[in-house]
Amino acid sequence: MDPIFIILIILLGFTLIFVISTYNILVRVRNQVRNAWSQIDVQLKRRYDLIPNLVEMVKDYMEYEQETLQRVIEARNQAIDASGVKEQGAAENMLTGALRQLFALVENYPDLKANQNVLSLQEELTSTENKISFSRQHYNDMVMTFNTRIEQFPANIIAGMFNFGQQDFFEIESTEREVPKVDLR
Predict the structure, then answer these.
(1) CATH of residue 20
(2) N or C terminus of the chain: which is more exposed, having fewer CB within 10 Å?
(3) Confidence class of residue 28 from pLDDT cuts 50, 70 and 90?
(4) The pLDDT of residue 173
(5) Is 175 within the bounds of a domain?
(6) Is residue 138 packed enough to be buried (19+ CB in 10 Å), middle (13-18) or exposed (0-12)?
(7) Are residues 26 and 150 in contact, defined by beta-carbon separation less than 8 angstroms?
(8) Which of 172, 171, 158 is nearest to 29 (CA)?
(9) Residue 164, SS3 per DSSP
């Protein structure tokens, strides 16, 4: 057997092993991104289930704040109907803003502030918001890992051959990035 033929077979074998290995790594990381998104989805579902309960409890007390309650419900419905990471992120930012406004208004109603059920629901929503934030961070870390892998040479060749595309980050609203101003005068 010709030594050049043996070298070609060895090179072909190494190339095949490299392609298979790289492909499997990309599949694993892509699945980790999908899993991270499903964890966000679980927390969002929990949040969506809690919101109608909160609105139902406060609506009798807040008869003059029906517009705010309606905004919360509309924002919730838009978030439920959102598809894709970018659209979901925008809808979630809108819902978070509506909930913040509702919580601020609750502070103006002493009966609501003292209502144990309302306080409990607020605590549950706050806890869920924290879980969403943690899940979003984990998801974005996985997306960064995946996007980095498919951009690096020589994995980018394999990624291109098998149509591995960039994943979108679950981004927060730019107003949430701003540092709050504190005035102690």
Answers:
(1) 1.20.1440.20
(2) C
(3) very high
(4) 66
(5) no
(6) middle
(7) yes
(8) 158
(9) coil
Q: Pick left, alpha or beta for residue 61 (phi over 0 → left; psi -120 to 50 → alpha; otherwise beta).
A: alpha
Q: How far is it, in rounded angstroms, from Cα 89 to Cα 87?
A: 5
> Do the domain assignments include residue 183?
no
| Cβ neighbours around 185 below 10 Å, total | 2
- Full residue range of the structural domain in which residue 105 is found: 3-163
Residue 141 lies in a domain: yes
Dmax over Cα atoms in the chain, in whole Å? 91
For the chain, how many structural domains are there in total? 1
For residue 27, being part of any structural domain is answered with yes
**Model pLDDT, residue 174:** 55
Q: 65 pLDDT exceeds 80?
A: no
111 half-sphere exposure, CB direction, 13 A CA radius: 6
The dihedral over CA atoms of 87, 93, 96, 100, expressed in degrees to the nearest 10, equals -150
Residue found under tokens 């502070």: 107
Q: What local confidence, expressed as pLDDT, does residue 115 receive?
A: 77
Residue 171 phi, psi (nearest 5)? -95, 155
Contact 94, 75 (CB under 8 A): yes
